[in-house]
């Protein structure tokens, strides 16, 4: 994932700068700029994480065909890389501000507080899904009943105990030892990538794949989706993979990362993470599930009209044994820990008088409670779509102001220049674009990733129009 998963020395420096306030409200100085190799390592480790163990199998449950999956992922991930390179990295190296400070200059501090709240809560839910992932591995020695694909609530006392125990450990480590977490995660990333590759190779052997046509036929022309799932086509895969990290690229969250880059071309390094994690790892995880579907247990569930579980722990254990259990625990842990930490930072922006330790504990508590409910992990495809859909349009505000603001005759960084703390042009552009297309999605049962780009474009256009109106009124008052 999706994003902000395992940390490298570069990302540790970025977050340290955020916490210390060293560059939080100023441009990154030239002495702290990094070359493209630093970003290569960061993104390579960032996107092969706990989420991948869930997302890969979920693609199989949608009945997707081989062409739609393999080519859809190839092109969708390419669009994500292009978005990082020509939008996020371009603007990040131009201004060198964090996302939050950049937004504050445009929106005003009160409106940024609303954004931070949404960001923090969504981070907590994502971290909760990763606690769920690790719990499926920890539960194997205890013969714990695994959550089913359609489960929403905890299914046993054992599940509750394991999730709570993991949540407490992860939250305390995130609150007290980020430096250790960052260094440990940097070492764990290659292990996790190796585990994905091993899972893929072993699965191909168990599936008796000896040629590319055998590999292609695993998905073939597709099938009916499993109970509770929707049928995925090429466009579902293409748009979902493009916008899986929408909050980070077109949503501009990674301005905080690319403000450290010497040149915009550092944006190309995202391809390392995307094609390792969001291509190889997703397909490898899907192969794990393909092996499990041939088991008597899975066949029995399908015969009864039930969807077989996609619990990552048993899937990895079935392929590579104890190493699989360790890999799933590490992948979930290295995802949940920094995600909880970042959620804490978002909350601290709202309640600055509370220490970093306690806001992180608050975030960890919310994440742990979310982790008790398997639905966040089992419905990860839908949750990730919603996550990007809510946050991405805010990035359109920054993009449209940068590329079209001057031509449209609006004042850049209006909140800073005018002293307003709540830019209504931003608020109404965000709310209307979100509301209109979310209504369309719900009312007409439209896949949410189909409306993410239209909502983003509408938000940018509305921002320009509303800004023109607001700024003209403001100028008339001051005459």
UniProtKB/TrEMBL annotation:
Keywords: Membrane, Transmembrane, Transmembrane helix. One of its GO terms (cellular component) is plasma membrane. The chain crosses the membrane at residues 66-87, 114-137, 157-175, 187-205, 232-251, 272-292, 315-336, 357-377, 383-404, 425-441, 447-466. InterPro entries: CodB (IPR030191). GO terms for molecular function: cytosine transmembrane transporter activity. It comes from the Bacteria. PANTHER family: CYTOSINE PERMEASE (PTHR30569:SF0), CYTOSINE TRANSPORTER CODB (PTHR30569). This is Membrane protein. The lineage of its organism: Bacteria, Pseudomonadati, Bacteroidota, Flavobacteriia, Flavobacteriales.
């Amino acid at each position: 994932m999706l994003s902000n998963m395992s940390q490298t020395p570069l990302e540790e420096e970025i977050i340290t700068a955020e916490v210390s306030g060293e560059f939080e409200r100023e441009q990154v100085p030239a002495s702290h700029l990094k070359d493209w190799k630093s970003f290569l390592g960061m993104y390579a480790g960032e996107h092969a994480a706990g989420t991948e163990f869930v997302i890969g199998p979920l693609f199989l449950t949608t009945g997707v065909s081989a062409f739609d999956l393999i080519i859809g992922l190839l092109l969708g991930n390419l669009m994500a890389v292009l978005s990082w390179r020509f939008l996020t990295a371009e603007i990040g190296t131009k201004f060198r501000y964090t996302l939050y400070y950049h937004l504050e200059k445009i929106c005003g501090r009160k409106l940024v507080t609303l954004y931070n709240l949404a960001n923090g809560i969504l981070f907590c839910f994502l971290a909760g899904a990763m606690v769920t992932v690790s719990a499926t591995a920890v539960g194997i020695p205890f013969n714990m009943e695994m959550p089913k694909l359609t489960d929403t609530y905890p299914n046993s006392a054992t599940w509750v105990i394991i999730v709570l125990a993991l949540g407490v450990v992860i939250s305390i480590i995130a609150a007290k030892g980020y430096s250790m977490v960052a260094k440990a995660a940097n070492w764990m990333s290659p292990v996790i990538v190796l585990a994905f590759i091993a899972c893929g190779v072993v699965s191909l052997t168990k599936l008796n794949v000896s040629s590319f046509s055998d590999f292609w036929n695993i998905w073939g022309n597709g099938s009916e989706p499993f109970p509770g799932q929707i049928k995925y086509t090429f466009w579902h895969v293409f748009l979902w993979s493009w916008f899986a990290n929408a909050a980070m690229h077109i949503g501009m969250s990674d301005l905080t990362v690319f403000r450290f880059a010497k040149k915009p071309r550092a944006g190309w390094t995202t391809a390392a993470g995307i094609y390792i994690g969001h291509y190889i790892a997703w397909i490898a995880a899907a192969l794990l599930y393909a092996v499990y579907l041939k088991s008597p247990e899975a066949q029995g569930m399908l015969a009864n009209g039930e969807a077989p579980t996609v619990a990552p722990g048993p899937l990895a254990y079935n392929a590579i044994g104890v190493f699989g259990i360790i890999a799933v625990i590490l992948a979930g842990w290295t995802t949940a820990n920094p995600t909880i930490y970042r959620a804490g930072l978002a909350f601290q922006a709202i309640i600055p008088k509370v220490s970093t330790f306690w806001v992180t504990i608050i975030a960890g508590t919310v994440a742990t409670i979310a982790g008790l409910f398997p639905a966040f992990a089992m419905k990860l495809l839908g949750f990730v779509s919603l996550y990007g859909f809510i946050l991405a349009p805010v990035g359109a505000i920054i993009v449209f102001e940068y590329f079209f603001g001057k031509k449209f005759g609006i004042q850049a960084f209006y909140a800073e220049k005018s002293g307003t703390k709540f830019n209504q042009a931003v608020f109404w552009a965000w709310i209307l674009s979100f509301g209109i297309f979310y209504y369309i999605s719900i009312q007409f049962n439209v896949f949410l990733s189909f409306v993410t780009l239209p909502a983003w474009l509408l938000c940018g256009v509305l921002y320009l129009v509303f800004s023109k109106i607001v700024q003209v009124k403001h100028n008339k008052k001051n005459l």
